[in-house]
Amino acid sequence: MTKKRNRTRPALSLQDRLNKFAQDARAAARNAPDGAERQALLQKVRDGETAAEMERLLSARDKHEPK
Fold this sequence. Notes:
Elements: H1 14-31, H2 36-64
Helix pairs in contact: 1-2
């Protein structure tokens, strides 16, 4: 017997989820003391912002691609 696939969609778009991830990591870094943990959180912020920007560019490219 095969397992049924979960077909629910996320409540937020990918762009919104990436932005929320970056905001949450930034807030956690703001409260963290200086050190390796804070640097790791700041790296997550940069990664999330980069991913959001890449997703934005790629989705905009699809809309303007010549046929």
